[in-house]
Amino acid sequence: MPITPVETLVANAKARIETLALEEARARAERGDALLVDIRDVRELDRQGRVPGAVHAPRGMLEFWVDPESPYHREVFATDKQLILFCAGAMRSALAVATLRDMGLENVAEMDEGFAGWTARGLPVEKRD
Length: 129
Fold this sequence. Notes:
Blueprint: H1 6-14, E1 19-20, H2 22-31, E2 34-38, H3 42-48, E3 55-56, H4 62-66, E4 82-86, H5 92-103, E5 108-111, H6 114-120
Parallel strand pairs: 1-5, 2-3, 2-4, 4-5
């Protein structure tokens, strides 16, 4: 059986999730209505920096950190705020949001354009020393 191309998986995910414009995602986070969740790999954060105030949840641990029954659960995800996920370019985030929706989370979306869009606009980025 042939492998489904990742582009197809991402397109299918995007068809069933909410994608917010970067400006709207930022505004919701700044109002305190949402939590920005950076799912990029820690090496990407080290190289490129991070969005101030965003919570880091590596893609490989996201489901475990969100699930309140998991031994790896993180309290930051036990919130009524909307979770707005982003990655580098809004592909991994689409797959991650689709998975969280499959888990039963309803108040979850992705940020269009990802970190690349954030930096292209010259928005604030924290760098590690």
